[in-house]
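Researcher: Quick one. two chains, 774 residues in total.
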Amino acid sequence: MSLELRKVHIRDVVLGGENRLTDGVLFIDTKELESLILEDHRIRSVSFDLARPGESVRILPVKDVIEPRAKLEGGSSFPGVLDESMTAGGRGITVALKGCVVTTTGPIVGFQEGLIDMSGPGADYTIFSQYINIVMIIDKHDDINPHEHEEVVRIAGVKAAAHIGEIGLTCEEYEKTVYDWPVIGERYAQYPDLPKVAYVCNCMSQGLLHDTYFYGRDTKKMVPTMVSPLEFMDGALVSGNCVSPGSKTTTFHHLNNAVIDELFERHGKELNFVGLVLNPMMVTLKEKYRGAMLVADLVESLGVEAALITQEGFGNPTTDLMMACKNLEDMGIKTVIVTNEDAGTDGLSESLPDMVVEADAIVTTGNSNATLLLPKVDRVIGKLEDIERVTGGNVDSIKPDGTLLVEIHGIMGSHNLQGNTLLTAITV
Amino acid sequence: MKRVLFYTNQFFGQIGGEEAAYTKPEVHEGPKGNANAIAPQLADAEIVATVICGDNYYAENMEDCRAYIRTQMEAFRPDLFLAGPAFNAGRFGIACADACAFVEEEFGIPTVTAMYEENPALEMYRKRIYILEAGKSAASMTKDAKRMAGFANKLLAGEAIGLPKEEGYFAKGRRVNVFSDKNGAVRAVDMLMAKIHGEPFETELAISTYEKVQPAKAVVDLSKAKVALLTSGGIVPRGNPDHIPAATAKVWGRYDLSGMDRLEPGAWESVHAGYDPVYANDDPNRVAPYNTMKQLAEEGVIGEIYPFLCSTTGNSTSVADAMRMGEEMVEQLKADGVEAVILTST
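Model:
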């Protein structure tokens, strides 16, 4: 399996006019995009806005963030979501528009939608402040229930990202990277002197706003599965607008999985990256035991010396993380885990609700309970009051002077548990 | 010029050795004993007085000693309180740390003490005060006095205090967020490589140990017991009157159930962000099974149902907040004669 990823750099975006990409400036025909999105009759209206790095703009409640993608060869950019026929991802040529993202917002679905600040202290806590956000405000019809509402915004986001990606499809200026993923025997045999490493990617699979989709299928209906990292980076995973804003693994994060990037970076130099297991984290204890058992089973079959597990969510999923870590360590597989912490607003509480002694190598992406005072901004895209109802916010979040007091939980991807953040925590 | 009150024991205060360990607290104007090792190194501050107390006396009469210190605090009105260093002396360590904790919490001024890493007072007080690293014995007095003075100067000048390793204090155990120069994925692979090669690495989060909860004894006769229903599933009256947050709740609510046979959909809702609330909103009894409780009471299985639902959202709640809320609920329930509870989660 081989994937050529062409990165097209976007330096500005203009809404309106004909679709085209000229000198790094992306023009989007919003009328055409609107018609496409409104093909879903559950949607009442859709509108578009732009937020650029450094602007005094706040976007909320954000549901998902998606990188625009298109396939030049080899199937669909989000296989299994928009197409009936299944073409495996991770093959052929994919075009990724870098520097811009599709950001979905609109009336709140639940409690798990976050904010993005394009400037000020909040901007430091979200990687999305560094991108031109093509914001899509989606409103649904009244009779659409919460589960459908989530689906509506999820599919609309993916559609828009695929449609916008197409605009850059034939762009001749790009940066090319070719990723190879040979068959298992070849992977195992290559670099015999380097330690073999596996990656276990935990994903939430627990219901509304706690779901992940694999080739369009709800991961609640799966058991842990071996997946190629090339499929990850080629749209096989879509976020079900999943989990609280700070720990969200957005579709952008799946496409640009920080651990996969780093393992490929060192592949053939320091380590031999031989396999990846996708581990859906379910609700009941029995499912957790089953998942952790199968993770260990699959990782063992890869014959690796070491494994890295990343996390999504917190609380009961911490148990999945710890169980998998224990099972791998018990097999003699050296394991590092990535997690956030809930150490309380004062940072004095126990950081995690569950822990095993085998978890002796932990990378933390920060204390999600820590509070941050965000200044008033010139422009809000969305609805500021929704901060009162989402994770990280409460009824006292909006201060009389217009500033906003939030736990960093409320900021999109602030402590992303795939390690796609510089945030960490220390003890003082 | 800033004012400093100094605390030391009978030995370093030059009153006597072990035979003077029951010396009651006394105060001397200016620096006395080992206060003189620190006084000249204070940048813009003077030691206005030295409190000296026997170690045994402090350990056995803590309330008296604190009261004495309170009097001196009020008399001398210092800007900072210094104690020790206590080296590896257990009783002296406790006296220094306890005096600092008392002063800091009662008077809100900064305090500094220092001791050896094995001093038992360290674990007892480290969360509450700055304890600097010191040597095992008085042989390191010069070095320790310098470190204490330097740290005191920073505190008095209102300068930012750096990390424990940089400043030489024992970490208080508070987690604070910082930005690293490498993202979490890069750090994780670094750590993995070190672990593979058997090289030293430092976990970013130490393994926690949790307090074990002893299950209470079984209720002798449930048919005579008053039983309460509690939930961390975020079921509240519609409109969420207490504004219980969707996550990291620090409050809980107590809601009147009298006259109800079940939690009616529409009248109750879930405000918990940690699970799919659709099915709980369809029937709130799925999370807080008051209907079943009521049925059991009618059948005589349960004697009496406590007529309030105690509820919060157990979602990303810190262990400390969860413990506090649990204690608050228990206090209320005990006062109301509840003998057993059913606690549902999600």
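Chain A touches chain B through 88 residues (CB under 8 Å).
Researcher: Thanks, that's what I needed.
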